[in-house]
Amino acid sequence: MRQLKGKDFPKLLREIPDKPSLLYIRGELPSPDLKYLCVVGSRACSIYGKRMTQKLIAGLASYPVAIISGLALGIDSEAHKAALDVGLPTVAVLPSSADDASLYPASHVPLAQRILAAGGALVSEYKAPFKPATYSFPARNRIMSGMSVATLIIEAGEKSGTLITARLALDYNREVLAVPHELGRETGAGVNRLLREGATLVRGGADILQALGLKEKDIPEQIPLPTDLTKDEARVLHALTEALVRDELIERAELSAQEANVALSSLLIRGLITERLGKIERA
Hints:
This protein is an alpha/beta fold. It folds into two domains: about 10-210, Rossmann fold (3-Layer(aba) Sandwich), CATH 3.40.50.450; about 230-280, Arc Repressor Mutant, subunit A (Orthogonal Bundle), CATH 1.10.10.10. It contains eleven helices and twelve strands. It has helices at about 10-15, 45-60, 75-85, 110-115, 135-145, 160-170, 185-195, 205-210, 230-240, 245-255, 255-270, and strands spanning about 1-5, 20-25, 35-40, 65-70, 90-95, 120-125, 150-155, 175-180, 200, 245, 275, 280. Strands 1-2-6-5-4-3-7-8-9 form a nine-stranded mixed β-sheet, sandwiched between helices. It has a three-stranded antiparallel β-sheet with strand order 10-12-11. The longest helix has 13 residues, at about 255-270. The chain is globular, with a radius of gyration of 19 Å.
């Protein structure tokens, strides 16, 4: 673990009025040439929220983007996982100190280790050992939004702490992006209100790229596959160049029915594929 002083902070973090005096870093911060995108949302995320997190971040895979989030349960951890799955750098900003013994939530120590193994970073303004306190969560949020060009809100209820991050981003004159939700669903009430109040509507990756000041490629590069797939899972995804019925997919992947069913079940649980109207396609 090393200390980072104010003059060495990411450029945008140096600009906020309430920047920390010192940061403790494990790992390496992404290149300053990348666009930092803060991605946050509800801890009790819905299937829709999880799917949109994976889909939107996967769409950024061939662009110079780094994903910033808070390692929390729900959307935050899904954002880190989605970034890791497609090879994007990711940084976890913590409400605790960055040592394994204090890291919050403790259940995400393996995810934190995966972030470090992939060349990412854990960031905290607290010297170890420090367990999170009530005040350290909004304090963490200001660092996430402060170091980012824009903040993407995937999912949030009316009283979600995620809205604190959105407010801070606005205070710092950074763009707030929001994913629309079905009316009447509590998990989306907060983001729908943000949209009503002027947040940028996100319909797909192109909207995020525009907010980051990046030009969408005319011919997108193929999104890389997650690095922790089994051989059978990789064959299924390679075969899914279009929506296919199950029997046709099994034939194209050259797998037995049993092998294919095991791989499909795993990919469905991870949100990497979807099944609609009898056809299977990449999420």
